[in-house]
Every structure is written in structure tokens, then in C-alpha cells.
Amino acid sequence: MTDAALAAHLAETAGQILLAVRGATVFSPQALGKAGDQTANQFLVQAIRHARPDDGLLSEEMSCDGERLTKRRTWIIDPVDGTREYGEARHDWAVHVALAIDGVAAIGAVALPDAGLVLRSDQPAAVPPPASPLRMLVSRTRPAPEAVAVAERLGATLVPMGSAGAKAMAVVQGEADIYLHSGGQFELDSAAPVAVAAAFGLHCSRIDGSPLRYNQEDVYLPDLLICQKELAGEVLALVREINAR
Fold this sequence. Notes:
Elements: H1 3-24, H2 29-51, E1 56-59, E2 73-81, H3 83-87, E3 94-101, E4 104-112, E5 117-120, E6 135-139, H4 145-154, E7 157-161, H5 164-172, E8 178-181, H6 187-199, E9 203-205, E10 224-227, H7 229-243
Parallel strand pairs: 1-2, 6-7, 6-8
Antiparallel strand pairs: 2-3, 3-4, 4-5, 8-10, 9-10
Helix pairs in contact: 1-2, 4-7, 5-6
């Protein structure tokens, strides 16, 4: 099985496990989120270690001993991206499985289990052109100030949504046009979405335009821009202007 096929298979299977856990429990939303995270993480970790024993592994739900830093290839997984949304039985959560090679999110799959979808880097498709007015994705609980300011300058409509993976895949599917985030994320939040979005021909970078680097010692990767390439220059310029004030 290729790396891309493995990523997609694992993301889809973990999503099915999570739906089963959610359907079989009577936990509170917070307890359900924790149970889902732990169950899906155990499956993904064991499956990757069995299928790719020589690769590094980084997961939100396990401690890091630093061994991954010695590897050219490291799997980066987020068993439940959007734990709150999952626990609340919303649809805007995702499962992330990515493979970083030499610091680049090269291969990835993002499962949207409630939609029955898995978007994968080895099966790209054409992304619909931007809408008018533009649609900008923001966190449904804590919209990034830069995103709100850029949306005002562009005359864009704000689209609140849950997990990073769900937001990124909304751009991939043409349901929104710009995903601009600042203020706190980690490699696990963006590795798989970036691998998929880049394969679909979208612009992916930090909000200062610099490249996104993965499998770093410090996994804090606080900001992200995913959008159509023709929009990237204007969005990045607006961010620089706003931040210069």
C-alpha cells in the first residue's frame, strides 16, 4: 500500500471508529471528546507503527521522546481535530493523517466522517473559482483579529466553522475561498490539511508568506493561510499592512 493510500485508509477507519464511539456512549460532550481522542489515537498509533515501523510519529495524544527528529519521514496525526465539535455531535470536525518528508507536509488525508468524505493528496481535483463576495473562514468561537480585519478590507463574508481540517477542506471543496488563521495552532492542526490543499493547487503558507515547516523540535505553528493562488498576494499584503499598524 502506498503512503497516500495508507493515510487515506487510516483516516477513514479512524473516522468510522469515532462515529461508533459517539453512537455508543452516554458521556457528556467533554468526556466523549476525550474518549474519542484516546480511542482513535490508539488505533492510529498502533497501525502506523505496524505499517511503517521505521518512520517517525507525532501525535497530539502521545508524549514525544524526540526520536522523530532523527527521521526524514514522520507521520503527523490528529485523531480528532475539533474535539469540541465532535463531542457536541456537530459535523465540522476531522481526522488528520499526514506524512512529512524533510520538513514538508508531502502526503496527507483528511477525513470528514459525518459527511462520509476523505480528501487525499493523491487524488486532487479542480477547485472551483472564488465566489463574489469572497467567503473567509474563521473560528466559530475565537475569530482571528487579522482574519476579521482582512475580511473587512476585502468585503468578504465571514463563515464561522469548527476544526482547522474542516475549514481547510471547505476551501478545497469550493465552499469557501480563504482560510486565514493566527493566534495559535500546532503542526498536528495543519499538516494533513496543508498536504491535501497543496496537492489541490491551493496556496499554503504562514501569514507572513514564509513556508510551513513540519517535524520541528517546537511543534507550535501558530498561523496559516490557505486560499486560491490568485488571492494570496493581496491577502498577504493586507496582513502585512494590518500588522504594521
